[in-house]
Amino acid sequence: MIYVIWPKARLVVRVTGQPDRIGRLVGDGSPWYPDSYPCPLRGHHEDGVVAEAADASALGKVELRELTAEEAYVALSGLGFPEERDCRQCAVREQFELPVARVVTEPLPGTDRTLIRSIVFDDGSELFLGAAAEGAIAYRLARNQAAEHQPEPTRSSEGEVTHD
């Protein structure tokens, strides 16, 4: 078992499972080891550090998530926590019953096209999109989280709304 800690986000992920799988996926065999773990909370841009143990008294002051090595690898790769990966048609349709607050975009350099990263809804939930031959694919639906996890939108000089 290892712990990955993001102090500013107040998040600790306890990674459990077979030691060889932990090592290969998120431990000393991973590209993030020992201090470049991307924060799996949306809107946080902080690198986490690995620890072999965590102080029990400190754990009460942070959000503690327990994930298998595979779940942690997926979350660290930007695909979200297990509960954020329910992107079935019914879940996506239900989300669109809420008003859209903003669309997170960025320009594609050298073209007159725009990349849509995600759609943010009035309740703070965010739907992340990717490309598929048939059209856009929903791969992460991060339901409304506490206000401290919400990024503030900014507007670039070209008018695109982005997360800092």
Structure explained in plain terms:
There is one protein chain. By secondary structure, this protein is an alpha+beta fold. The protein folds into 2 domains: 2-79, no CATH class; 89-163, no CATH class. The chain has 4 helices and 11 strands. The chain has helices spanning 19-25, 56-59, 69-79, 89-95, and strands at 2-6, 11-16, 37-38, 47-51, 63-68, 100-107, 114-121, 126-132, 135-142, 153-155, 161-163. It has a 5-stranded mixed sheet with strand order 3-4-1-2-5, with helices on one face. A hairpin with a 2-residue loop joins β8 (126-132) and β9. 22% of the residues are buried.
Short structural description:
With 164 residues, the protein is an alpha+beta fold. 18% of the residues lie in helices and 37% in strands. It is built from four helices and eleven strands.
Set out the fold topology:
Blueprint: E1 2-6, E2 11-16, H1 19-25, E3 37-38, E4 47-51, H2 56-59, E5 63-68, H3 69-79, H4 89-95, E6 100-107, E7 114-121, E8 126-132, E9 135-142, E10 153-155, E11 161-163
Parallel strand pairs: 2-5
Antiparallel strand pairs: 1-2, 1-4, 3-4, 6-7, 7-8, 8-9, 10-11
